[in-house]
Structure formats: C-alpha cells, structure tokens
Amino acid sequence: MQAHVPPVSEQKGAEKSSSSLKQxxxxxxxxxxxxxxxxxxxxSLTQNIVQPLMLIIGLLLGYTLFHARFGFTSAFxxxxxxxxxxxxxSHMVMLAAAVTLFAPILATGFTFFGGxxxxxxxxxxxxxxxxxxxxxxxxxxxGGCASGTLYAVGGGRSVMFITLLFFIIGATxxxxxxxxxxxxxxxxxxxxxxxSTGLGYVGAWFVSIxxxxxxxxxxxxxxxxxxxxxxxxxxxAKGWKRIFRGSWPLITAAIMLAxxxxxxxxxxxxxxxxxxxxxxxxxxxxxxxxIDVSSWGYWQANADxxxxxxxxxxxxxxxxxxxxxxxxxxxxxxxxxFNNITRKNAAASIIGGLLMGYGARxxxxxxxxxxxxxxxxxxxxxxxxxxxxxxxxxxxxxxxPLLGLSVPKSKDSFC
Length: 415
What we know:
Elements: H1 26-46, H2 50-68, H3 73-82, H4 86-108, E1 124-125, H5 126-142, H6 146-154, H7 159-176, H8 178-183, E2 187-188, H9 200-226, H10 250-268, H11 275-288, H12 297-300, H13 303-307, H14 314-332, H15 343-362, H16 367-376, H17 380-399
Antiparallel strand pairs: 1-2
Pfam families: Sulf_transp (PF04143)
InterPro entries: Sulf_transp_TsuA/YedE
Subcellular location: Cell inner membrane
C-alpha cells in the first residue's frame, strides 16, 4: 500500500468479503479503458516516448497491487501486532527479485532510450530517521502508504481521497522545510552497499539475499512460536481467468512488482517512485495561489520541472496509471464502490496523510521510493527506512484506538 489490506474487524462501512466472485462492472471497465486510451494518445502526441510507456507500466502496477491486495501498511501492522509475517515474507521475495534484476542494470547503467540508469541512493541522517518514523505512524493512521493510497483511490475507497489530499499538502510543506532538514542537521553522505563498501554489485547482491533470507526465516520462527491468525484466502477464478478475476498470490505479485520496477528503471533511468509527484502537484497549486515556490531550496535544482506540465513528469504519469490500473482491476472484479466516511476515519486520514507527506519528503521517499526502490538500489537508507517505519508502526498501534481505528488481535482473522 503500499497497498492496504485491513483485517476483517477493520472493515466497518467497507465492502465485506465474499466467498464467491462478483459480476464484473462492465460499464466501468469500458470507461476505464477509454480513459486510459485517451491519456495514452494524449501523451503520445504531446510528450516523448517514455511517458506513454510509463502510463502502461503504471497501469500494470496498479492492476497488480489491487489484484493481490499487496500490502505494505498492513504487512507491517500484522507483523508488529500479532507476529503474522506472511505479507512481510512476500516483501523479501519482491526485494530479492528486485536486487537480482537491478544489479546488472545499475552496474552497466543500461537504459532503453539513452541516458544512464541510476538507483535511489540517499543520505543517512536526522531527516531520514525522523521522516521514516513519521511515515510509519502516518501510514497506519491514514489507512495506506503511498502506493496503497493510490490503489485504494482507484478502487473507490472514499476516505482515501482525504488521505491523498493531505498527503499532497504534507509533501508540499515538507518541500518548504526541506533545506532545514537536509542542510542544517547532521547527515552522512549516501551509502551504497555496492559502490561505497568495495563489495561491488555481486557482493552487495549476495549480502542482500542473505539478509532477505534471514528475515524470511525469523518471521517463520516467530509465527511458529506465536501461532498468529493466518490471512484468509480471497475468492478467485480458476485457470487463465484468474488474470482478470479474483485475487492473485502474494508471491506472484511480489515478482511482478519487481519486474515492473526494473522495467521502470530501464525505461526512464530511475526506479519507481510516487511522492515526488505529490510534491510537484502541491507546489504547483501553491504557486497558482501566489506563493513563490521557486525560491524554496527543494526546487532550486529542479526549476524546469516546476515550470513544465505535470504530464512531462514521469512519476505523475506513473501515479495516474496506478490509479487507473487499480480502477480497472476493481471494476473487473465487481468491487468498485464508494463507502461511508465518518468523522473519526476522516480525522485519521487527515493526520495520516500529513505525516506521510511530510515524512516522505524528509526521508527521501516513501515505501516505494525509499524502502522498495532504495533497497533494490543497494542503498543503506532503504534498510534504515524499513526499520524506522516499523518503529512508527509500533507507536501507531497505541494511537489507532484513539481515532476509532482497530488493532489486530491474536483472535482476528485477516483478509
């Protein structure tokens, strides 16, 4: 979420799980396909070749996230609350596949359309520690992380529109304060396991695989000791129809996401990211309101991006693709519908969105850009981000009840 998959006990006001597949919402499917085709044609006519390709990759990312209900927020919460590591193990599979694909790409710098492929390797300092912790708290209050917010919006989860709005606001405020956190507070230079340690990409790959395997084994042993509730199976079609109808295995989605992230890297020269687009959207809105955004340190080196169309921003196009892909997946499964917004879940979404947006800017990314993209790029900051986000999740377990949100218990089942 980060696709967010709440326990059954959390789904008050949301669509209940069904033991059988629902009928596809064909008018919505057709409408989604038309919207995607129009956007593809527009990008093909007005932008370079990378942008329409980013739209296609984004569609596939959103489609995959929704079909598997692939979670980051829920994976962290289940693990920290009751010791269920099923989803966290799927993260390890995803990361193992990603580093395997990223290593030769980053070592050679190969891209399809010129330029050099570069990973997300960011500084390690106070801003990372504070930002990742804030994001961990925020995603548990806001109902989803960066990818989860996008795919939940695409699936029609009403309260996530509030989360998205305040995510954008938080990211914009973070950009305004960016100089203070990154220039005025202590930080080490970016550390790559491949290029900063002498390991090289082969050595860094080997160390990474060992680490992922260790986490995999630890979560299995914890489950054996705690015997937590398992994730309930979601309804799904049989055979080839499963591509379009019903849930996908988490491991399948993990590998798909790794492949699509590597494809993003070789297409645009950077891994998958999400929140830089939120900062761009919010900054453009602030500029339209008369605020001198171009004077902010965050935009000093990216003035051209600020002045260009949002459709020239590949991360924006990816985000639109994720939303549309999730919409198509939800409609194909007959699952798209808006649900109720209450005062409590609206308040949680506001707080969570602000914390995530601000935290992502401080931490040089979110669960996708910092955690997924950072670790796949062999950046130490990606590992630190994951640890601090887990710590933030732990604190959020105590805060969630104050906002009317449930916390998984050992007797709960999960969907």
